[in-house]
Amino acid sequence: MTAQQMRTPTPQGVGRAAAKIAELLPKTPLIEGEIGGTPVWFKAECLQPIGAFKIRGAWHRLSDLTEEERARGVVGVSSGNHAQGVAWAARRLGIAATIVMPVDAPQVKLEATRAMGAKVVLYDRPGGEDRDAVAQRLIDQTGATLVHAYGDPWVIEGQGSAGIEIAQQMAERGLSGPSRIVACCGGGGLTAGLALACPDAEIVPVEPEGWDDIARSLASGEIQRVPADAPPTDCDALQTIATWPINFAILKERCPFGLAVSPAEVRAAQRWAFSHLHLVVEPGGAVALAAALAGKVPLDGRTAIILSGGNTDAEQFAKVLAAQD
């Protein structure tokens, strides 16, 4: 049985991760804004050194490896943001990193991962190749440690450190903490971590239409998979086939429902973030904001929205800004 299978993420683990991350990285801004006249708080994880929140879980996981584990290296699976988080942490710790990435990952994410020294192994996501199977073959060959993008307890705890920061930053402004956190959701690592970090807040996961397996899982009470005929989506960061039991055990206790947003709603959110917050947010990093702007989630003066990533191609982003939908 692996360390990932033996260990359960805990609120105490989130607190330890937050303390480790605070020693390394400044808090990302918590920006106060308004939607429809209601004050809302925006957590700008798109301003992390790698452009996404994934740096949190990667650092917590890799910095906890033993010297023997570090010597054998790590393997990650990612469409780009987790890849960059693992590559960043591995370079800082002197650990060899191999990342299994889809052939259709955004070029900007592939290039950034390689630039940080990680080896990239491509797999055929459009053709249905199993990335976890590719990763397991590499692990069998090298003895490396798997750093899963959302099914790893350390990663879950690390992502939850964003919730610790939100609560601290709201307290500094005289508020008692978030009443609700609206989170971009792929495999559920961030959402589960936030649920552990902020037990008094309602946690609302948001996914792209057609890739809303967690929303359907919450509604049915059992883990559901994305259908084989799922539509294309620009939210590459959120294209996960199904969550893992380690996440769902937390989500089903803490998330009353999940939401899905359309491609047009995502593009509108990207434009809104650019014009109102002066932030560049990638499609997958904009879905939580999209749900709020579309009126799909209740808002109050203590609702926090995670802007989870900003790694988007300049040409693609320019097209979004110019679109009229």
Mean pLDDT: 94
Percentage beta strand: 15-25%
* Helix percentage range: 40-55%
Strand order of the largest sheet: 1-2-10-7-8-9
Shape assignment: globular
Distance between the termini: 50 Å
Structural class: alpha/beta
Query: Order of SSEs, N→C?
Result: HHEEHHEHEHEHEHEHEHHEHHEH
How would you portray this structure in words?
The strands form two sheets. The protein has a six-stranded mixed β-sheet. Strands 5-4-3-6 form a four-stranded parallel β-sheet, with helices on both faces. The protein has helices spanning 3-6, 11-22, 54-63, 67-72, 81-93, 107-115, 131-142, 153-172, 189-197, 213-220, 245-254, 263-277, 287-293, 314-322, and strands at residues 30-35, 38-44, 74-77, 97-102, 119-123, 145-147, 180-184, 202-208, 259-261, 303-307. The chain is α/β, with parallel strands linked by helices. The protein is globular, with a radius of gyration of 18 Å. Strand 3 (74-77), helix 5 (81-93) and strand 4 form a beta-alpha-beta unit.
Summarize the structure.
The chain is an alpha/beta fold. The protein has helices at 3-6, 11-22, 54-63, 67-72, 81-93, 107-115, 131-142, 153-172, 189-197, 213-220, 245-254, 263-277, 287-293, 314-322, and strands at residues 30-35, 38-44, 74-77, 97-102, 119-123, 145-147, 180-184, 202-208, 259-261, 303-307. The longest helix has 20 residues, at 153-172.
